[in-house]
Amino acid sequence: MTRRFRSAARSVGAILLAAALTGCGTNGRSDTDPNVGKDGETFVRPSLTVYMGNSPAANAIRSLLPEFEASTGLKVDLTSFTNEQLSQKLSVTLAAGSKSPDVFMIRPLEELNRFHRSGWLQPLDDRVASDADYDFADFSESAVETVKAEGTLSAIPLSTEQQILYYRKDLLAKAGLSVPRTLDELETAARALHDPGGGVYGYVARGQRNALVTQLSSFLYSEGGGFQQGGRATINTPESVRGMKRYVSLLKQYGPPGVFNMGWQQAAGLFAQGKAALYTDASAIYTIAIGSDRSSIADRVGLAMFPAGSAGAKPYNITAWALAMNAGSTNKDDAWTFIRWATSKDVVMRSQMLGNPGARRSVWDDPQGVSGFPQDYIDAVTESMRVGVGHDRPQLINVGEARDIVGEVVVRGLLDEDVGEAADKANQEFQALLDREKSR
């Protein structure tokens, strides 16, 4: 798959870059030399400072930067950080009122509300509304939902992920079972395929208190529940409790021992080793979950849409990373030129061909844009983009604290305590957290 991405990206590179830069201003510089004006005077090249998290999206953009700089005359100083380093760096720098960085990557569901409330994010509504050629309507609606704070467009989607079902094709076939399309069918299949003595568990997913919340979300939505509605906590509604009980039942009855210690790395690793028949988690980790070409199960893994509950199939479809503009930047026009380019149809195409799943529907509809992905992955992602929910965790500033509160319900259930009672207690704690934030 990697070879196909690289080959395709090289073959279309020159053509796509020219189109991607359409509409990106050059501030009066010569078409042939960005450092020389049209009447012969010399320019000092404007510069932008950009912070990014380590990710396929950042890698793809970095690889295209020399061409962008040559075509626009803008010098881009791009620095990459780990996820937590980036969050800490931005928090300190922006709180100090720094004009730099001009542009930065952000994890919307972790940081958007806090950064927006702090006044650090430049609203982008006017930019996209006044630029018909940019075609903002091409972005998935649920991905856009992720990057709005109090109704304001605060960033542009850069990469997406959805919750999907990973399954062992050979084990389902041997048991005479079809691919689970509903949560009832998922539990039936997990029961039938659960064979600890034979080294295969029926189901695996995240069990760590904080980490599991994002994957629990699709169970809640598909049963008609959710974390909150407006300013009210809703994790103890009958619908939300039903979704939690589903998750608890699958892990407790058909999961591996030690599930309390499983984040995505441990769960994906166990599935890739052939030790679980069914697994639900993020689409972005599919190359890890299915194992390498040398693994014993790589050619036996199928991918499917998240199964439907009583409210239908409602997996999350989120913006995992987005590009935002510093409200304090003094280079806002150039900052927009960079954001516009990095999220344009053609650069999203090139980035996706290098392995970064983008948020533009036109790219997913283009055979070239999906040329390196398995067909069942394409089907699951495109359908999830159509019906998905734009958040996979509680929506507030103190996301980490809220995740601990919600995740504790599942942990209590795994310890054989009553899920409904645990949800009532957690709902009170979550409501108190929401109220504290509202009063500030």
TrEMBL record:
Organism domain of life: Bacteria
InterPro entries per UniProt: Bact_solute-bd_prot1 (IPR050490), SBP (IPR006059)
Signal peptide positions on this chain: 1-25
The UniProt record lists the keyword Lipoprotein: no
Name of the protein this chain belongs to: ABC transporter substrate-binding protein
Keywords: Signal
One Pfam assignment: SBP_bac_1
